[in-house]
Amino acid sequence: RCSGHDFEIIVIDDGSPDGTQEVAEQLVNIYGPDKIVTMEIISILFFLGTAYIHGMKHATGNFIVIMDADLSHHVCLYFMKQKEGNFDIVSGTRYKGNGGVYGWDLKRKLISRGANFLTQVLLRPGASDLTGSFRLYRKEVLQKLVEKCVSKGYVFQMEMIVRARQLGYTIGEVPISFVDRFYGESKLGGNEIVSFLKGLFTLFATT
């Protein structure tokens, strides 16, 4: 509401066992189906891009904000930044200005820093934080990027920025202080790290 825009919230649940769907249905009862749209996707082919595709089918606005459901983000600064430079994409950055991370252990910090460092060296994307998921997109830009991207898992976020630069879209950055979630657990594990590295070197070889 603080952005001055009319809004809707689309909740995409991948069949997780943490009660997301039940909470979303409660929110529909409170705010109404015109404000809260919820859907459950149960598929072995589910990945982050799948959620984007399903969400866009139901989005009616000109801008789409991608964010986790743990409420660790603040939306208003993104709309302010978008208006400031008429950007196609506004991305949160933990590694620029007064951005930072709180609540992570040393291992998690090293993994995130290392992933971003390798990305900067190999791809030179022109953005300081490529592994974060909190972003604002023009709807038509998001649609085009999802069509172009082939990655799955965590590397998908990185490819979105790399493809955006290739296509000439403008990207603004907002420093964010990311506070680790109080509820739930991260899905980041060894398999995701290996997948990220494979995707990184694939992008390096093909872009």
TrEMBL record:
Entry GO CC: endoplasmic reticulum membrane
Pathway, per record: Protein modification; protein glycosylation
Domain Glycosyltransferase 2-like: 6-145
Descriptive protein name: Dolichol-phosphate mannosyltransferase subunit 1
Cofactor(s) listed in the protein's UniProt record: Mn(2+); Ca(2+); Mg(2+)
Family: Belongs to the glycosyltransferase 2 family.
Main location: endoplasmic reticulum
EC number assigned by the record: 2.4.1.83
GO BP of this protein: dolichol-linked oligosaccharide biosynthetic process; GPI anchor biosynthetic process; protein O-linked glycosylation via mannose
Subunit: Component of the dolichol-phosphate mannose (DPM) synthase complex.
Reactions listed under catalytic activity: a di-trans,poly-cis-dolichyl phosphate + GDP-alpha-D-mannose = a di-trans,poly-cis-dolichyl beta-D-mannosyl phosphate + GDP
GO molecular function: dolichyl-phosphate beta-D-mannosyltransferase activity; metal ion binding
Function: Transfers mannose from GDP-mannose to dolichol monophosphate to form dolichol phosphate mannose (Dol-P-Man) which is the mannosyl donor in pathways leading to N-glycosylation, glycosyl phosphatidylinositol membrane anchoring, and O-mannosylation of proteins; catalytic subunit of the dolichol-phosphate mannose (DPM) synthase complex.
InterPro entries the UniProt entry points to: DPM1-like (IPR039528), Glyco_trans_2-like (IPR001173), Nucleotide-diphossugar_trans (IPR029044)
Compartments (UniProt record): Endoplasmic reticulum
UniProt keyword annotations, A-Z: Endoplasmic reticulum, Glycosyltransferase, Magnesium, Manganese, Metal-binding, Transferase
